[in-house]
Amino acid sequence: MPNRSHPASRPAPGTARPRGLAASAGSAAAAAAVSAALLAAAAAPASAATATGVADLRSDIDALLADARLEGASSGVLVRSLTRGDVLYREEARTPLVPASNAKLLTSAAAMEVLGPGYRFTTTVAAVDDPGDGVVEGDLHLIGTGDPTLTAGAVDELAAEVADSGVTEVTGDLLADDTHFDDQRLSPAWDPADEPYYYSAQISALTLAANGDYDTGVVDVEAEPGTRAGDPVATALHPMTDNLALAEEGSTGAPGSASTFAVDRARGTNDFTARGSLPTDRTYSTLRTVHEPTDHAAHLFAAALRDHGVHVAGAVDRGTAPPRAEAVAERSSMELGDLLVPFMKLSNNGHAEILMKAMGRETVGAGSWDAGTAVAASALWRLGVGTRGVALDDGSGLARSDRLSAATAVRLLDRVRHRPWFDAWHKALPVAGAPDRMVGGTLSGRMGGTAAEGNVRAKTGTLTGVSALSGYATAADGELLAFSIINNGHDGGAPRGIQDAISVRLAEFSRDDTAPVERPTAAQRVAPGAPEAELECSWAGTC
Known about the structure:
The protein is an alpha/beta fold. The protein has three domains: 48-117 and 337-540, DD-peptidase/beta-lactamase superfamily (Beta-lactamase, 3-Layer(aba) Sandwich), CATH 3.40.710; 122-183 and 293-333, 3-Layer(bba) Sandwich (D-tyrosyl-trna(Tyr) Deacylase, Chain: A), CATH 3.50.80.20; 218-289, no CATH class. It is 29% helix and 20% strand. It has helices at residues 28-43, 48-65, 103-114, 152-164, 293-307, 336-345, 349-364, 369-382, 406-415, 422-427, 437-440, 496-508, 522-525, 537-540, and strands spanning 74-81, 87-91, 122-127, 135-136, 140-144, 169-170, 174-177, 218-224, 234-238, 245-248, 251-253, 262-265, 271-275, 277-279, 284-289, 311-312, 316-318, 326-332, 457-463, 466-474, 480-488. Helix 3 packs across helix 8. The chain is globular.
């Protein structure tokens, strides 16, 4: 068995590079400085106690990674002390692996660097004609820039502002302008089979958020059974608009019977169908994507205008607003520094993709994945995070063509600490064992009752056969550690118990490990219980 814990450098394997995210060459001077620093740290004298503490840590992590659940898998692991600068553990640290949602560490950091923590998305209602007399002669334009917080309530407020301005009639059409981004709704790197599910929603510069979590490009689906077996099931979509259609084909099942009820959308349409049996003692709730989110937003706005007494004579359609159109009403999102909380805590894929396109639009005038990933690469390089071994075809990590090494993840975790926006970024990371989902996020149900609770702040990531956890832990003596664990190719569920056990061990770590302590075995550290789930808890609606 190879010596997993030896921190000596290994030759870097071949690297994958995406379109728009090619690796840049680092300077020889910078590389020499880094090498000298590492050699100096390695040569520094260490007490016997220090050596024992580090050796024990390495031995324990070795044992955890030898778990049968990781047999045949690739595990990139790196633990670095940010207090002392030395590597405490390394295994396949430079191997580019599929990161899943750990890609959001890169996207969020790049967005804070490019857009800034005070960046806001705007949604504008504009007209060419001066509506001073209450009538817009011509078209009314709804212009989006990608606001992921545009809820039904926010749309109603925009309509109310139009009405409050004195507008009562629009003689032309209501035209939705989503040209701030390109018209590529789904990344070609995504699996088409994921399209109905909210973590793979279509991306548009004008989209609705279905709920307070700001899930974009989806509708909230709720269903209630009847009182007796055979009764119809009452199903509703929120927010419902007149361009969506729902066929009710479900029926109520006997209490205690199996539920076969589901609501699906025919691909390429907004035709939803409710089918199957829903027992009298069950309810149904899920999210489903919509086709063409721009149209969904435009039709909801049209309905809100009607509710506020504004009559639109023409049709609801899409179109580019003329440059001379002037604002009648406008809404701004929360600042990016605040938006990071629902984005990172709940691992929101839509937010990641919107930010990626927004970076491209704001920097080079192209709201596309290609432009966004290129801009993100430049931002990462400015942060001092080389992109060797990094590949991003999207912002969320849903693409299986994405690549990230544990070494690069730890480098990012180190470098962002020196940026003025770090406090907001750090606050947005999920916190182990914190029950408030806007604090604990995807770590709410993990590591509670351990030394990691309230201590470890880290980003999770899960796809089938892919699991990751990267972030910070404060050791027992107050030493700040950065770590990254990326598992690929494991069978069965995600090995979160192993990741948690490593994180807890880091929270317990002390270099001065001379006192006789009874440390649990590696097997005891791996949390027993239910099988590991395949999806992020936020994706499965369980956190």
